[in-house]
């Protein structure tokens, strides 16, 4: 049996006339009649009653028609879905992300409007875990600080954030709305994430402080940037964070600009170039348009 024989059968069952069915299918009547006979022989079932004046379905033919039309609908759906998958418009897109909720939500809002049939699976993870997941092809997209220096990972900057000093609201310098000279914090305890979690952030902070004339005294480390803020609010130290973390701001802390500091945190979209796919290509098109 062949799929085309099912299509021939459906046409005859709906027209109940071999001549009309053949015209509908764009073929002549003799080969259509032969194909129906071949189908009946393969099934060892009589599907049609045939007389010189009339063609009608047998009881088995009526049942076969009902079920074959279901198969046809399913096949059409499968074909359509295969085309959508090939174009990157259907499937599952796994995205790893850090604390840059603003950029993530802006991209996803547009992406989900354009491609509603793509399921998004989000997983929050530190930079080091995102890079590992990209290497292993466990995620297709990462949203993480750059630059990213790996041969198999490509990236594109999607957002850039200035750094701010984060102080407890009752800190003596908390009222310095005009900006902070970092050298004034050289005796403070700093709260940071360790370098192995994300080198781009860690190296930026060390660089900023070194340019200001001191090395930060790191006394507390946490594995997620957003958890730095509650530690500052508990008076465990001060911090330097990218402005995007203002999303997690609370009343017990203040974010203040840093005087004479032009260093920024560059957040990137990253992907494994060995796993490039239509899904990733369409996602990158959305990112380019923002």
TrEMBL record:
Which positions, given as ranges, span the membrane?
Answer: none
The segment(s) forming the HTH lysR-type domain are 1-58
* Gene3D superfamilies per the UniProt record, alphabetical: Periplasmic binding protein-like II, Winged helix-like DNA-binding domain superfamily/Winged helix DNA-binding domain
Keywords recorded for this protein, A-Z = DNA-binding, Transcription, Transcription regulation
Which SUPFAM superfamilies does this UniProt record tie to the protein? Periplasmic binding protein-like II, Winged helix' DNA-binding domain
The record's comment on protein family reads: Belongs to the LysR transcriptional regulatory family.
- Name of the molecule in the record: LysR family transcriptional regulator
* Organism (species): Sporosarcina koreensis
């Amino acid at each position: 049996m062949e799929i085309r024989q099912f299509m021939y059968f459906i046409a005859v069952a709906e027209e109940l006339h071999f001549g009309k069915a053949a015209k509908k299918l764009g073929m002549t009547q003799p080969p259509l009649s032969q194909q129906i006979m071949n189908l009946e022989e393969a099934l060892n079932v009589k599907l049609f009653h045939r007389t010189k004046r009339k063609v009608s379905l047998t009881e088995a033919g009526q049942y076969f028609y009902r079920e074959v039309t279901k198969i046809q609908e399913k096949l059409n759906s499968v074909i359509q879905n295969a085309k959508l998958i090939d174009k990157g418009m259907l499937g599952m897109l796994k995205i790893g992300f850090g604390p840059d909720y603003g950029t993530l939500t802006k991209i996803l809002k547009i992406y989900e409007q354009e491609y509603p049939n793509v399921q998004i699976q989000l997983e929050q993870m530190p930079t080091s875990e995102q890079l590992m997941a990209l290497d292993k092809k466990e995620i297709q997209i990462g949203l993480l600080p750059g630059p990213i220096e790996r041969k198999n990972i490509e990236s594109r900057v999607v957002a850039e954030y200035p750094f701010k000093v984060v102080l407890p609201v009752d800190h003596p310098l908390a009222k310095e709305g005009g900006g902070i000279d970092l050298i004034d914090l050289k005796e403070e305890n700093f709260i940071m994430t360790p370098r192995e979690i994300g080198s781009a952030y860690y190296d930026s902070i060390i660089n900023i402080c070194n340019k200001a004339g001191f090395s930060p005294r790191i006394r507390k480390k946490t594995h997620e940037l957003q958890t730095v803020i509650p530690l500052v609010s508990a008076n465990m130290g001060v911090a330097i964070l990218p402005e995007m973390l203002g999303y997690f701001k609370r009343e017990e802390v203040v974010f203040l600009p840093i005087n004479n500091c032009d260093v920024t945190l560059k957040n990137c979209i990253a992907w494994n170039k060995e796993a490039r796919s239509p899904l990733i290509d369409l996602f990158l098109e959305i990112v380019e348009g923002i």
